[in-house]
Write a structure and sequence with these properties.
alpha/beta, 228 residues, globular, 2 domains, 8 strands, single chain
Amino acid sequence: MGTNKLLLFDIDGTLITGRGIPKAAAIKVIHKRFPHFTNGYEIPFSGMTDPLIVQQVLNVNGMHIEPTDPLINEILDDFIVELAKNLNHKNPPDLLPGVKKLLIECSKKENIFLGLVTGNIMHGAKIKLAAAGIYKFFAVGAFGSDHWDRNKLPLIAINRALNYFNLDFNKDDIWIIGDSRKDVECAKKNRLKCLAVETGKTDVAQLKDADIILKNLNNIKDLSFILN
């Protein structure tokens, strides 16, 4: 058996695609509250935390507030209600290639431990992963509801993993797995390994600083460097 490894997954564009449903839900709740807003919905949200997304949309429409403003949590509470109506077991997100197979394989390994590092707030992450049937694989994580700055999330997730699994992990054995430039950035800022996948909306050139870049997670053999 190899050394203990902690794999910290992003969600959108890495594990699943919501087919535009989450963004539509966010736009709907913001527009309901601020019907005069016309800007910001074209911002590339990939890799951003949910509080930062809302703050950016408000900002470009002339409402300049901090990402910690209570109004943002109020909007995100509305978003969760709307998201649950539109993304559920009856209308689940799509799993990206190889994801279910990889998670099952990881669950069989005594030295592989799974977690999340995602810009989704915790309740949004649960809705998406439960609807996709993969929530059970993730015991710990760090979320946009923990901090609006994605670079702060890996340490939160690692500390939760240490406490939950009662194990220590070497930094060389902790991997951030994501599809965006911000996933790569948060890995590097925290001196962690990074596996980037080309299954999101990010140009591959922006993933160049990752340790490994794969088209997708479909080939278990491509992941032998983690799974062995």
